[in-house]
Amino acid sequence: MAEIVLEGITKRYPDGSVAVRALDLTVADGEFVILVGPSGCGKSTTLNMIAGLEDITDGTLRIGGRVVNDRAPKDRDIAMVFQSYALYPHMTVRQNMGFALRLAKADKAVIAAKVEEAARILDLTEHLDRRPAHLSGGQRQRVAMGRAIVRDPKAFLMDEPLSNLDAKLRVQMRTQISRLQRRLGTTTVYVTHDQVEAMTLGDRVVVLRAGVVQQVGAPQQLYDA
Ligand code: ADP
Ligand code: ADP
């Protein structure tokens, strides 16, 4: 089970500002949840607390049934997908995708197999030996996703992964991401400020405003509201 449970999660930054206030949210195993809302409402802070990149001031965070408040990011069994510029420019696609597994000292044959499988799923097989500079924006973003997939994480955490792409590519990648998530069935939390992404990508939308949940529902319910 890779349920993510936030109970009374609060983030107070050292300057005293409260970015997230007593947030309760359960993301079911395999569910695709979108966090949406205006700039500054606390989306990234929430995602970063789930990832372990920001300390939780108050509340309890469970991933797959275990309290992970004090666990390092690498011990949370999650993978972050950032914007595509987070690729290592000097590494090939193959090296970029295998990087986390190499750090974790996985077996070479296992790494090769996982990278090739991810490349197949993401339609990157022909590009494995290229460097990011020689790829299109959409291909780079798929490499960023490949890096996450190869780790077989319990959950994907995505922070505005499409915001660097042009409008046409965004539409293509939206389709690819939702297909990929359905195919893998990996619990996903996806942050965006884009209403269209919020309404088309996920199973459920959580609208944040000033660090609190303003609305939660299936995209269609929110649309009707
Ligand atoms: P969003 O991702 O929705 O744009 P953030 O989570 O980045 O929002 O920010 C939420 C609030 O926390 C904002 O008011 C922001 O200014 C504040 N904030 C973010 N990072 C810090 C920080 N390191 N120190 C103080 N306040 C911060
Ligand atoms: P940093 O230098 O920022 O700590 P590294 O890439 O050196 O990040 O990786 C440190 C740890 O983070 C590794 O043990 C790895 O398992 C984990 N890690 C690597 N890539 C990701 C990712 N996409 N999402 C979450 N954790 C990751």
Automatic annotation (TrEMBL):
What GO annotations for molecular function exist for this entry?
ATP binding
Q: Which residues of the full protein are shown?
A: 1 to 225 of 399
What are the record keywords, sorted? ATP-binding, Cell membrane, Membrane, Nucleotide-binding, Translocase, Transport
Q: Which organism is it from?
A: Kitasatospora misakiensis
List residues of the ABC transporter domain.
4-225
This one is known as ABC transporter ATP-binding protein
Q: Establish whether keyword Nucleotide-binding is in the entry.
A: yes
